[in-house]
Amino acid sequence: MLLRLLVPEAGSPRGLADTIAIVLALGYGTVMMTLGDAARPDAAIPWQADLALGVAGAGALLVRRRHPLLVTGLLLPFGAISVAVTGPILVALFTAAIRLPFRPVLLLGAVNVATGGIYFLLQDRPARDIWVDFVVRGVVTMAALGWGSFVRAYRRLTTSLREHAARLEAEQELREEQARLGERARIAREMHDVIAHRMSLISLHAGALEVRAAVGPASSGAASFGTASSGAASLGADELAVAAGAIRRSAREALEELRAVVGAGSGRDAGAGLGAGQSAGLGAPGGPGELSGSGMPAGLVEPPQPGIGDLDDLVGSVRAAGMAVDFDSVLPGGGPPVVVGRAVYRIVQEGLTNAGKHGSAPAATVRVEGVPGRDLRITISNPVSGGPAAGAGGLGLVGIGERVALAGGTYRYGAEHGVFRLEAALPWPADPADLPAEQR
After folding, report:
1. Rounded to two decimals, what is the model's pTM?
2. Could you give the CA distance from residue 75 to residue 80 in angstroms, rounded to a whole number?
3. What number of CA atoms fall less than 13 Å from residue 318's CA on the CB side?
4. Are 318 and 296 in contact (CB under 8 A)?
5. Which tens digit of pLDDT belongs to each residue from 326-347?
6. Which of 61, 81, 189, 215 is the most buried (most CB within 10 A)?
């Protein structure tokens, strides 16, 4: 409370500050009238007039913020004939020191000290020597100017710190938003690769069906597809070729639409996720995607993204890098849906990366457990040193949040008793039919 009164904030309530300023000004002026020559019969002006000037000067302090130079300049001449007005003058000098450059304020302070000599000369029989007036006015003037300069510097410092903190917060928000966008782009790339892989297989089979129906009897094509032999045999070669060609064209058009929708946000080339030559004329005889005798293209198809079945390899590579990882996976044989499994892999991958970067020791514990119809839970913990914010790392956890949100789950993290813990829960439907079509 005392600090707020001595060093008022720029946005502090003006009513309280004005009241304190007026009380201090009148109090100081009254004390100086009692101790000085103002109450003596031979004073330059009657004490009643002196006190009236002090009250009028205190009233002028109400506009000192808007016009600090004007108020101070108007009050200073009265300091040569009135003692009571010295209190308002000091408060006006204090405000001027806060709001004006130091050089003009220093000049105003010197004028205030000089008026002390004029006041001395106007007295018939001064009670004290002139140097006493100079010393007293000089000390209180320098105190007011020094205090005001300190408040000015303090306000500048606090304003600078607030702006710096706001700038850091804005930059952190920008980094987090960029991390979210980067993770979304990464998820889009994975979706592009996985869906493109599946669609390319459809295109491959349709192309093989078309080629074999065109060069051989319908039964040959039927024998190649096992369970579809009875349906294929009932169609003529021309009809089978037309049907297979329509399948291939539809699949190719779907791939092109997928590139237009997803590829733009993934930051990759339009043909990402496809084997060489699959974007044009896949399966056409003699073209870049010409089929071999087994019905597979000459170019390789990009494999799908890693999933939950690759966790052992991930943990093994981390262990090979020097980190002690205690890994435990308790899952039924079939495993979760593909999208959920891929999210689990990425969460564990980022969690181990975070543990390696920000942990106090190269060690981590990973546990994955769940059953269909309930949440699939991932828990990653590692030792850290510091407070609750220790181990939180940088922007990797933002990416985990995007993964979890995409899967419709929840997550939390924090440090307690020297251990940083990351927990995520992803929904695992009991029936795959409950999943959206893109997650089956």
Report:
1. 0.48
2. 10
3. 26
4. no
5. 999 888 877 888 878 888 998 9
6. 61
